[in-house]
Recover the amino acids of this structure.
């Protein structure tokens, strides 16, 4: 187990290094110039050149990358070229919106997928099972933006239960208002991601029904449903843990769009704004943090699966 964990850790570090290089050099291909943004439309070429020299943008790209990655290893993600604010400070501030949004979205997705996915499999061939299967396929195909707009129309415009946009300026100092502001965005992401996860849970449950250990338990006197719940669902849980890593990535991608739609001051909205402003020093830090989060989640999922599934340990 220790050897496996060290191998996965080495692959994680290699993946982070490759991701950092791809992020840095790919961003330099984008059109535009932050020096022109800072100087304004009336800046002379000499002024633009002076700004580029002050920011270090006139140095070779490998040198710029080495300086940046060296700062990252020291915990310094860089500084905003427009405001002078440390990128890490802004990320911590924006994460107070994005992280709770992601956690709440994931909880909603699990509350939808786990019970209804198992129920859909157990009611296979019946009206209830067919209805759940068809509904999940329809919801999984719904664009997240359209789903968000429909939820706003229902819960914010018609019923007036929840705010349509915004987040309290005082943040979590007013937890009730902050939570109400995140409910509609979290429902939007959670319903779409939950519908996709539901289909996987249903498939994994149906596969578990046909396993020998479930049939053996049923032959010993348990009902099919009882045998499935007692012996099949633990294996379904192992499969779900694996898929959750992909779901987390989907939630991160969805949060970028949803924060724009609902006017939330999170990392996703900051990323879109910084791309428009050509704030490459901030964008590369934001992308590296998001990519690192996804890779670390995958690493933890692999280790968890290894610990919980004795068949993998025996096979090795």
């Amino acid at each position: 187990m220790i050897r496996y964990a060290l191998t996965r850790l080495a692959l994680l570090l290699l993946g982070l290094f490759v991701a950092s290089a791809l992020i840095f050099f790919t961003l330099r291909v984008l059109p535009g110039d932050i020096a022109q943004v800072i100087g304004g439309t009336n800046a002379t070429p000499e002024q633009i050149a002076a700004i580029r020299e002050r920011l270090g943008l006139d140095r070779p790209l490998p040198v710029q990358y080495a300086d940046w990655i060296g700062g990252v290893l020291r915990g310094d993600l860089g500084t905003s070229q427009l405001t002078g604010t440390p990128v890490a400070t802004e990320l911590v501030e924006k994460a107070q919106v994005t992280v709770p949004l992601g956690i709440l979205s994931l909880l909603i997705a699990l509350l939808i997928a786990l019970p209804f996915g198992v129920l859909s499999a157990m009611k296979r061939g019946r009206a209830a099972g067919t209805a759940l299967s068809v509904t999940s396929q329809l919801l999984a195909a719904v664009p997240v933006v359209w789903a968000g707009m429909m939820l706003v129309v229902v819960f914010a415009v018609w019923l007036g239960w929840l705010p349509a946009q915004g987040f309290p300026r005082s943040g979590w100092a007013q937890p009730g208002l902050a939570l109400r502001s995140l409910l509609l965005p979290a429902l939007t992401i959670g319903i779409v991601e939950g519908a996709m996860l539901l289909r996987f849970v249903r498939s994994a449950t149906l596969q578990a029904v046909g396993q020998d250990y479930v049939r053996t338990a049923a032959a010993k006197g348990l009902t099919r449903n009882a045998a499935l719940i007692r012996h099949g669902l633990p294996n379904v849980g192992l499969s779900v843990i694996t898929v959750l890593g992909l779901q987390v990535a989907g939630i991160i991608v969805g949060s970028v769009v949803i924060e724009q739609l609902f006017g939330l001051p999170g990392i996703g909205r900051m990323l879109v704004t910084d791309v428009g402003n050509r704030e490459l020093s901030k964008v590369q830090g934001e992308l590296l943090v998001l990519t690192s989060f996804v890779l670390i989640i995958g690493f933890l999922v692999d280790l968890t699966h290894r610990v919980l599934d004795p068949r993998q340990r025996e096979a090795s």
Observations:
- The chain has 13 helices and no strands.
- Residues 2-73 form one domain.
